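TEACHING EXERCISE
Course module: macromolecular assemblies
Task: Read the component lines below, then compare them to the predicted structure of the full complex.
Student: A.B.
Group: 4
Components provided:
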Amino acid sequence: MAGSIFGKHFQISTWGESHGKALGVVIDGCPAGISLSEEDIQKDLDRRKPGQSPFSTPRKESDKVEILSGVFEGKTTGTPISLIVYNTNQRSYDYSEIAKCYRPGHADFTYDEKYGFRDYRGGGRSSGRETTARVAAGAIAKKILAEFGVDIMAYTLSIGPVSIDPAKFKRDEIFNNFLAMPDQEAAEKAAAYLHEIKEREDSAGGMIECVVNGLPSGVGEPVFEKLDAMLGKAILSIGAVKGVEFGSGFNAARMTGWENNDFFQYDEEGHLTKLSNNAGGIVGGISDGFPIVFRAAIKPTSSIHRMQKTVNKAGQNIELQVEGRHDPIIVPRAVIVVEAMTALTLVDYLFERIFSRIDLIKKALL
Amino acid sequence: MAGSIFGKHFQISTWGESHGKALGVVIDGCPAGISLSEEDIQKDLDRRKPGQSPFSTPRKESDKVEILSGVFEGKTTGTPISLIVYNTNQRSYDYSEIAKCYRPGHADFTYDEKYGFRDYRGGGRSSGRETTARVAAGAIAKKILAEFGVDIMAYTLSIGPVSIDPAKFKRDEIFNNFLAMPDQEAAEKAAAYLHEIKEREDSAGGMIECVVNGLPSGVGEPVFEKLDAMLGKAILSIGAVKGVEFGSGFNAARMTGWENNDFFQYDEEGHLTKLSNNAGGIVGGISDGFPIVFRAAIKPTSSIHRMQKTVNKAGQNIELQVEGRHDPIIVPRAVIVVEAMTALTLVDYLFERIFSRIDLIKKALL
Amino acid sequence: MAGSIFGKHFQISTWGESHGKALGVVIDGCPAGISLSEEDIQKDLDRRKPGQSPFSTPRKESDKVEILSGVFEGKTTGTPISLIVYNTNQRSYDYSEIAKCYRPGHADFTYDEKYGFRDYRGGGRSSGRETTARVAAGAIAKKILAEFGVDIMAYTLSIGPVSIDPAKFKRDEIFNNFLAMPDQEAAEKAAAYLHEIKEREDSAGGMIECVVNGLPSGVGEPVFEKLDAMLGKAILSIGAVKGVEFGSGFNAARMTGWENNDFFQYDEEGHLTKLSNNAGGIVGGISDGFPIVFRAAIKPTSSIHRMQKTVNKAGQNIELQVEGRHDPIIVPRAVIVVEAMTALTLVDYLFERIFSRIDLIKKALL
Amino acid sequence: MAGSIFGKHFQISTWGESHGKALGVVIDGCPAGISLSEEDIQKDLDRRKPGQSPFSTPRKESDKVEILSGVFEGKTTGTPISLIVYNTNQRSYDYSEIAKCYRPGHADFTYDEKYGFRDYRGGGRSSGRETTARVAAGAIAKKILAEFGVDIMAYTLSIGPVSIDPAKFKRDEIFNNFLAMPDQEAAEKAAAYLHEIKEREDSAGGMIECVVNGLPSGVGEPVFEKLDAMLGKAILSIGAVKGVEFGSGFNAARMTGWENNDFFQYDEEGHLTKLSNNAGGIVGGISDGFPIVFRAAIKPTSSIHRMQKTVNKAGQNIELQVEGRHDPIIVPRAVIVVEAMTALTLVDYLFERIFSRIDLIKKALL
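Instructor-supplied answer key:
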């Protein structure tokens, strides 16, 4: 109940610090009978792993996942699945400076205020490394959703001033460039921008877009647990996310009802369609069977080598140059984290859909 | 567990449909010893009440709240507080048309898909009227927060193309115009825009900004229950909200680390300050003691008189003109709902701050 | 989160005091599509209603239930069901004495200690009258369970020294005598005992047994949410219950493994049977498809007219004679409360069984 | 949400099977600032460790606990504490027989029914070995409670027909004999009984009593989360527990109100006392400041060498002799598990007491 447990049915409990022995997650509520191997999880972990691009921290971590429980003879047993990833590369480097001051943009100050002291090694629990556990659990959620035909695709929409051109969208391209951009040209422009930012010892932010196909209609709860509210919470829980919007999003504030309403129409084959998807696939908090579309704004990496003003605990104003290994941009590595949080949210509400109707419950039990 | 319960400690359970006998809320977890009267709650309900402006539905509702339990001799007892508001003005009007088709922008279709059928009278549970219960509970949360020096202020930031001018910000003005805008000139421009929109039988959207002063540092939980994630969920759970952003929000995606980081400095008196508040008062999901600032995008009202394309349940494409009494803009009435949801979220996490540290727990119990 | 909310999926939030305006319950998570009327609920309320026997308080309450939301055209909509029962007979009688002292056996002292003050009118929230809301919600849970073939039967097993004779068990008899005993002779003996107890201005306790037939195997969760643990919590949450046991219960402490183990056997038709049911239908916290059997011990009514020693808030030792209208025995009226709490627990875990296996989830959704 | 998570604030998530790589627990919600070492936890684990007495399984397990996160510089950080215990002695022995049949008294059948298949190695998740994680987490809860003066003492009350003599109660004796009995003579009689039971290739059950001193008044919530209901759930969640009773317990069913009510009296020094404690320190679900007293009935170990009747999955009635290493009695090893579950429950409700009153919340925050 202190923030590290997520989910209602497929419930995950994550743990671990940036420079501790290991990180991990315990999943309680994964149904029995799903074939699961470490490879299923590893492939997603490899997507967020550091040290794979000129734009991510050179810190080398194998990030190998180990399944400690909950799987027997290749299948989930329905009991808790415990996953662990050991930290193998915490450079034993001097944190005495950082221990005494507050890095701008980081949670150093707020953790001290909240807990009275903090694990200052690499940010401790507030480090982005914590997302390793989310991605591991999310890989299982994605595997389950795939069995129901639900496909989650996130990608980098923009980096600093460089946005993708929808006309040049290529899904495969997401995996072909370091920046997880589905548009090769934009990726090249963004890379050039990042090289320049790096030289200035600065960092950049960007946007991630996520599209979910195949989610049936009727998923989500009314009032407080609207599907967009729950997805919003999940995405905003990722460090560095400063905003989230669904469908027409912030533009809706400037549109009129006539412009923003999605008109229903039956096509020639009599299938229900919509003439637009400004709703982003969610109306009244419940999925309408059309693609779920949302975007997240990611702030620039807080750690920069450039000299910054800040204070120390001795009550002095100081100038600080943050040492260590940083990503000039974290957006590309956050793409898989967005997919993971989306999957963890959807698997819960997809299952819960059964409880909305007595006929669905009877289908399962009688 | 089906969406109508909100909160961890100050936990509310809301109920009621647009055209049912009544709406209400049960609050479990309100501490004992708080003086509470129906007036304390009524003053907020009066802020969202319909029929008060040329831009809100003429439906007349007294929206008088009644306390049914949990208060004894003017004080909360610590046991559940049950609040009820009777529906007095459900115009007995013909819903047979709406029962057979799906209104664009409304939850008619998604509710049918989820539940198999729906209460089609005025949107049933999906009606904005549901927020009456939120505002009633929120008024109590706001009263508690006030005892801790926490002040919540929400207002209309923009309507369609018209935004307020920060230089002309006047808090009192929020209560002086029909549009809850803290800038009189902007309010007049927006009113003119709305008259035009109304003539075109269309509707408008807008943005709400919320600023929280006096919240101590150290409020919020790490990882999944970051304060911005929880506030985001709360705000996105309000029907018609399509996006939410904190501090520099979506602009952060275009800024650099140097531009976006808030530098700490001690002022002459040795008080800790920040040279900017791009974080919106939340870092690592925990409050830093500076103002909490966020914005929500509200879509234009879905109900418009203008003829729209849609389908009926008989499988036909039809043209629909939505009858009835509608707001051409719901933003001004949503302002108090944003305050309520903010208060309901903050009261939970302010209390929970105690559990973060053994010294705080001892202060209370030993 | 302060004790008045029960359940995981079929989640109820109860409210109301003995001498307040009304009592009620909000049910969130009742599936859509169940036909429901006030009569369905009233018939169970009538079983716990006071003033129906020489052994229950003469306080007259119609206890008429009203459905305020969540039902449309005779069917549940899947949104919150709000039920209310008005208090019509709070005798305006003088509580000034009770306000100043602590009645032995009652929660007067503990409520003052916990909340700092209390609603002293008839026990306020700690009154047994609170169970009205449980029975109302339980009636709906029982109706749902019946659609799955689950039958719950509770009855008075003993009153003071008088126990039923299993050989004379008649289910109909439960409804034929004032004491809800399935054995007419025992009921007559118990009635004689109660008349004597009443003359001594004292009160009696007893035991309730509950048998559940038709619950499928595989219901219940491992480790902390074993079906017996959850039923135990539900039953122990009924005021006056001092103990609960399952199957062979406390006798198991004296038996050997050989005596207590239930041996499986296939009968002639090849159906799986057990040669005994010492487990009470639950093994490892999960139902085995045989009858669930448990017993609860109910303490004697705390309110007695006989003079008792106690203290007042002025720090004095006093003698107290509790005025007012009391049941010399509450066991018979508690029988329906036991059924209600059993139903509320089982409906949750029966539904949750679906989430244990991916094949059941697919049966419902694909 | 599938049974392996316990607690509201000090929330634990346990995992692991009898013959898996390891078992463990993640604790979310442990306050920051508590000094904690592996030794603090190990000393309780050593109390439940197998192979320490002639009456426990000869399976040798070091059961060494390792802290993987949540502790920095000897103090809890307020973030998740992950504890792991490796299984070092899973004898690689032939389970092919057990895989095909159902052991009487074990969860083999119910797990197959619930999950469709099971990890048959030593009972998998249903093994008593799962309690290792409870004891590890409970040790931390006990350490916190000790800082508030709360002392938990559980012991063996009876084994088969042999009960302790209250007149001979010696607390130290609990740690001096293999059976955790506070009465040396009774321990010797019980040992003799167990030797005889062992020779008959049978097993025995018994009772555990738990007494909590120093718990302040006002702990516990009304209605559904009464302190006795929550303790009851916690204790009944321990495998093999068949019943639980508080204070006068099942005897209360035979007592009269006059006999069972605890009369309050002020003593010479003016301290409030009670002339009896039939309530077991809990009235209306809330602690009254007097000792909490409850008892649990433990069934005899299900695994016995003696030949038993059962069935196999091939549909045949068979005779089964359960091989392997079994405890003829598990009561003594369950004593520390009872203490752990009691501590885990009390720490939650002790903390929650703060939320009952606005004055306590202000004491902590203002």
